[in-house]
Amino acid sequence: MDRIRIRGGAQLNGVIPISGAKNAALPLMTASLLTGEPLELRNVPRLADVNLLLRILGNHGVDHTVTGKRPGQTTETGQTIRLDASSVIDTCAPYELVSRMRASFWVIAPLVARFGEARVSMPGGCAIGTRPVDLLLMALERMGVQIDVEGGYVLARAPRGLKGAEIEFPKVTVSGTHVALMAATLADGTTVIENAAREPEVADLASCLSKMGAKISGAGTSRIVVDGVARLHGTTHAVMSDRIETGTYAIAVAMTGGDVVLENTRPEYLQQALDVLTQVGAEVTTTNEGIRVYRNGSGLRAVDVTTDPYPGFPTDLQAQFMALMTRADGISRIRETIFENRFMHVQELARLGAQIRLDGDAAIVEGVEKLKGAPVMATDLRASVSLVIAGLAAEGETEIHRVYHLDRGFEALEAKLGRCGAEIQRISG
Ligand SMILES: CC(=O)N[C@H]1[C@@H](OP(=O)(O)OP(=O)(O)OC[C@H]2O[C@@H](n3ccc(=O)[nH]c3=O)[C@H](O)[C@@H]2O)O[C@H](CO)[C@@H](O)[C@@H]1O
Ligand SMILES: C=C(OP(=O)(O)O)C(=O)O
Asked: Which pathway does it operate in (predicted)?
């Protein structure tokens, strides 16, 4: 299994190109099932999750071609994927595939909307929490889908098609909003989604669906209205930039000091996180190319954060920010309100010398003078990259095991950091 070895202490200076967003690419790829015409997606990141979803879609009979990929080379310029769901042969998504990636459960919506049936394995929990799908199923039921659970599979049936409905989510859910939105595009009548997730990835999905012929208003707000249409057609769409990758590198620069321009990204996607970095002591400015993050040798201020749905501080940056706070002057309280178990990185950060105590849904981080390199274990995607950030500032060598978690969500991480001066290498095998 691959490992990542980092010798800490180098500042980061240079330019980091930001890739297309994993969390936008996955629902967009899933949406290809809504039409019999090709959907061409540009700026798709080269990630393990994208490859796995291609396999899952292939299992349903979706053909794909990938261009912009140079064999044997790792580049960070996105690939173009053309998906053709004109000959779907199977509406079942099996356990072996769905259990490896939660987002693959979302195929249930386009399958039942277009074909009137779907049989999809329950996704199960994961390292960050139990992650139920009750709200996704509630949304489909509101649209007239009959839901049964048998042998670990959800059977969704709507032989006479879906009906527009009023759907009010009792809590903000990105997956629930994606599912309701995709299903509503082909429903008969109008669907109103209340308390919808406002995440930019929802707006990106809606923008692509609109180009496919869907009638959607309000995406990006908490009330989305969809007038169903009889069929959707193919289109071309460029995946939005990855705000979590952007925030991760911004935090890395705040951690090591230095001066980096994050290219092809937009500050409004993560304004709250950037504001927090300014409070911490980094300078964050918007340039023509993207976002410049700068910090000289001055100390880091401890800042409290609470994760929240967009536009709040993203849970997907909580672990990275915790790594940063391990070196701050003072005590920071980091509250996690989205996932009940997203603190797996705490014990690994402690192996590097961090002082962190858990108190219910909060982590209390007492900044230390220095971190010291050690072997550590990645436990989930964002937890792994928090260890990279800590390793970049730790004295000596840090070796991160189980980096397949990182490969799910960070395209060309070593190359991007290495070019900015980090001493980082992947050790294969
Ligand atoms: C592939 C992808 O885009 N993943 C993102 C997506 O996950 P995902 O879409 O799974 O997250 P949700 O927004 O749906 O989950 C938010 C909260 O709602 C709960 N919930 C969700 C659905 C449901 O049916 N019942 C229920 O109780 C979840 O357990 C969680 O506590 O949004 C999360 C919140 O921004 C991010 O951390 C993930 O990176
Ligand atoms: C939690 C994440 O992904 P997923 O929802 O696919 O587990 C993530 O991207 O941080």
From this structure: Cell wall biogenesis; peptidoglycan biosynthesis
